[in-house]
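hey can u check if this looks right to u? its 263 residues, i copy pasted from the old doc so theres a chance i mangled smth
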Amino acid sequence: MKERIITALIALALFIPIIWVGGIVFAVAIYLIATIALYEILRMKQIRLKSIPGFLALINLYVLLVPTQYEETLIGWTGHDKMTFVYVLVFMLLLYAVLVKNTFTYDDAAFVFFGMMYIGICFYYLIETRMDGLIYVVFALLIVWTTDSGAYFTGRKIGKKKLWPEISPNKTVEGFYGGVVAALVFAFLLNWLFPFADTLLQLVLVTITASIIGQFGDLAESAIKRHYHVKDSGTLLPGHGGILDRFDSLLFVIPLLHFLHFI
């Protein structure tokens, strides 16, 4: 627990100033974080980032992460949009599988493609969210962190009924609801200090939805790890695992807020 707390404090001390500054600094930081996340997810299937499929996925990841306001400058000169690069990735992965005589299989190609899209789309929306305003990133992070903490402490104190033991044995139903309640409390506090929601009803509905979806994001990454017999996605953050282990909930919450037109 002590190691976990110290790591969290150091990570916050490094990440909060980057969030505050925003702009190119934030975008570059997300590019670095997304690169590590891609490395972690490919490693689950024993695919190296320093390989042809890994390199193709990395290039496409960088294209997907380009913020909307810079698309014309960085991609527009090619005469194509982002989806063209995605189509090329699929084609190149399948072509590579043929050239290496199926030692790199269709399953491998599908995994590389899905992993790149999973990370790319979600982190793209994180960059876009910061471009829209600091308060929205703060709100999303607050929902994720308070849900995670509320679920953890509630589960430890009164948790009895397992939520999804086949995927994450330590999570409980009581912790699930405790996480939602904690997210609501801190969302109200944030909105009281810095009003940003149009109505309180909107704030309640979005917070509850985001808290629930965030917990499913955590379970989704747990399901991937369990399938590939991996305890943590990485060891970058002592006591917390890897980048994916810390951003799994946020990767679901951030796109959701855009889809709900809350951001």
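Residues 200-227 form the longest helix (28 residues).
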